[in-house]
Amino acid sequence: MRNKKKLLLPETMSVAGWNLLKGRDDVEGIPFSPAMSTKDFHAALRDVHGVALGVTPFGVAELAAAPNIQVVGRIGVGYDAVDVPALSARKIPLMVTGIANSVSVAEQALYFMLALAKRGAALDAMVKSNRWTDRFQQLPGDLFGKTVLVIGFGRIGSRLAKRCRAMEMTVLVYDPYVPAHAIRAAEHEQVADLDAALPRADFVSIHCPKTPETIGLFDARRLARMRRSAFLVNTARGGIVDETALHASLSSGGIAGAALDVFDREPPASDNPLLKLDNLIAAPHLAGVTVEAAARMAVTTVQNLLDVLDGRPNPDHVINKDVLG
Fold it and tell me: Do 89 and 108 reside in the same domain of the chain?
């Protein structure tokens, strides 16, 4: 039999993805630790034909270390740590997992909205610290009848919007890359001016990719346009929200609260002042990594790699479509 093709896969990847290789005697899966040094990672790339990445960066240096590479896959949908032009220059497709974790992130965003409105962490602490009589000092709120502004109407934002409608909320959508008729067809209100929409929103939930255009999208000026009673949720990427400006707004009562699954630096420094605030709740970049989503993403990632090796990549999962054809 001809030499096996080799796929470099994170040892932390869900077993569901590894199981997909059991029926392929022409492909070998090689585990690697995402915590390994750059030097060791480069050495591991030497003989492989494909690699699946979690948060491991991949660019020119990695390509130079991988002369046989034919495909790079992300276990997820974000790819800001991957040098896409460098891959395109080598005609190597970058594959992502489509909708595999979209529902999970949308659910996390909705959970954050509920946790902020219902004051989940504060009320839990109140009971556990025997402060029952404090319960009327700051009452929780409803989502019913409130307005949410969804930033980005892609796989995740569109699903959150649908769930917010089920909560009987008014849904505003800002996405300059989605036709207005598509947003209206989903029975949401399209807004073309982000600055004008912000004062209308009780909740703002971010679901756009991290690009040069969106870095610092929510700076001090934009945060100042939000209602003092409003909440900000970011399950997209760190850097879209200016953390210094957010801390200032939360500390001064500029907005009522925020929830972050992502940070500029991950993990955030222990002295990050945001982590000291009672009106901020946080999660360790796990919105898209539920038990179920991890299995779906692993299967989709491995299938993406196999599809490229087999000469039939799924175009819906290819980021740099210029390499196709």
Answer: no
